[in-house]
Amino acid sequence: MGRAARHALGTLRTFVDDLRRGLEPDRPPRTASRLLVTEGSGYALRAAREDVDAWRFEEVVNGLGDAGSARDLERTTEALAWWRGRPSRTSATSEGCGRLGPG
After folding, report:
1. pLDDT digits over 20-38, tens only?
2. Which domain holds residue 34?
3. Which residue from 5, 24, 62, 88 has the highest number of Cβ atoms inside 10 Å of its Cβ?
4. pLDDT-above-70 percentage for the chain
5. In what order do the strands lie in the sheet with 42-45?
6. At residue 33, what are phi and psi to the nearest 5 degrees?
7. Burial 41-68 (b: 16+ CB within 10 A, else e)
8. Distance CA 69, CA 98 (A)
């Protein structure tokens, strides 16, 4: 492995460590993460569907009827209120968000 690749790998690990601390701020140092785990040569997010706003939003959208009822409007408004910041450009599916790193 060349110098640039080692540097990139070190940078990635630093970002993953920071993300793990953000996801589990009460996790003691040097203990295994339960949410962002190392899996094979990459990382996997082990969050429940109800804990990820993008997945919850997707379920609401998939459950909407064709008629556009008042209940659909209420559920959509509630789901939109979950979002903070700018939306991701990637898909909000478990396939798009649940796996980080080479497949």
Report:
1. 999 999 999 889 999 999 9
2. 3-100
3. 24
4. 83
5. 36-39, 42-45, 99-100
6. -75, 140
7. eebebebeeeebebbbbbeeeeeeeeee
8. 32
Q: In DSSP terms, which residues pair with 45 in a beta bridge?
A: 36
Distance CA 8, CA 14 (A): 10
Token match 């996790």: residue?
27
DSSP string, the chain: --HHHHHHHHHHHHHHHHHHHHH-TTSPTTS--SSEEEETTEEEE---GGG-HHHHHHHHHHT--SS--HHHHHHHHHHHHH--SSPPSS--SHHHHSEES--
Place of tokens 């599916």: 93
Report how many domains make up the chain.
Answer: 1
Q: Which two tokens stand for residue 9?
A: 């790998």
